Amino acid sequence: MDTTLDxxxxxxxxxxxxxxxxxxxxxxxxxxxxxxxxxxxVNRRRGETGFCRSGEKLEVSSFHSHFGEEPPISGCRxxxxxxxxxxxxxxxxxxxxxxxxxxxxxxxSTQQLSQMMxxxxxxxxxxxxxxxxxxxxxxxxxxxxxxxxxxxDIPLVxxxxxxxxxxxxxxxxxxxxxxxxxxxxxxxxAGEKYSSAPDYxxxxxxxxxxxxxxxxxxRLDKKGVAQRGLLVRHLVLxxxxxxxxxxxxxxxxxxSSHTYISIMSQYFPAYEAQEFKELNRRITRQEYQQxxxxxxxxxxxxxxRQN
Length: 307
Ligand code: SF4
Description:
Layout: H1 3-7, H2 9-16, H3 18-31, E1 58-66, H4 71-74, E2 79-84, H5 97-100, E3 106-108, H6 110-122, E4 128-131, H7 137-149, E5 156-159, H8 166-170, E6 178-179, H9 188-195, H10 200-215, E7 219-220, E8 226-235, H11 244-255, E9 260-264, H12 285-297, E10 303-305
Parallel strand pairs: 2-4, 4-5, 5-6, 6-8, 8-9, 9-10
Antiparallel strand pairs: 1-2, 1-3, 7-8
Helix pairs in contact: 3-7, 6-7, 10-11
Bound molecules: iron/sulfur cluster (SF4).
Iron/sulfur cluster binds next to loops.
C-alpha cells in the first residue's frame, strides 16, 4: 500500500473543494453547539459558551516540537504539538488543568493557527499534533485549510479525550491521518465521578469504532514513524478505578488485536484528585504489571509500555 498517497489524502479533499464544504458544515454545528456529545446547544458564534467554556475564537496555549510522545509520534525530529485551551471533558485529575480547566492560552485567528502549523513543518516535525482539539474543530479546519493552501503536507494527528461525537468525526474523514484518543474509563461510575460524563465509555466506544473505520491499524514508515492509523492511550488509575479490563477487552474484541495501545503509568493526583481518597496516590509497580499482563492475556501485544 502506498502510504504517501494515504497521508496526502487531505490534499485531495482540498483540491476537490470538499474541505471547504466540510468547514461550512462544521461551523454550522457551532451555532447550536453539538460539536461534542455534551450537545450544549449554545450559539458559540454569538459568543455563548457551554460546558467547555470556549467561544467562537480559537484559543491556543502553546505550540512546539515535542519529544515526549510515543516513539512513532515523536520520531527523531519531534511531534509538532499545538495545545488548545479548554476541554470538553475536564477530568478532576487533569495534569494540564491550567490549560483545560482554567483556559490558560491566547486568543488567535485561524490564520495564525495556519502559520503555527507551517512553522512546525519548517522545523521538520513529523506531524501536526492537535492536543484537545474537539471543541475547536471548525476553527482548526479553517486554519488547516489555509496551511494546506501553503503546502502543508505532513500527517495530522487528532489527540483527543475519546469523548467525541460520531457526526463530528465524519467531517474529519480523510483529513485526520492519525487518531490518538484516550480511552479513559470502562465503567459508567468512573465517567460520572471523574469527568461528569456517565456515558463516557459508551460514547468513546462508538467514537473509536468510527476512527478505526476511517484509518485502520497504525502504520509506520521504514524509520518507525507513524503515517496513518489509530493509537489509543489508557492511563492506569490507582485501585482499578479506570475499569481497565473492560477497556482492553473492548479494544481486543471489537477493534483489533493489532490496536496500538499506549498503557500509561504516570498518573499522579493532580488538580482535585486529592479530594477522592481512591485516587489520592500514584499507582504501584504491581498495579501496572497487572495491566500489562491483562493486555497480553487479551492478545494485545502492539504498543508502548513504560518502564
Ligand atoms: S464543544 Fe463545548 S459547547 Fe459544544 S457541545 Fe461540546 S462542551 Fe458544549
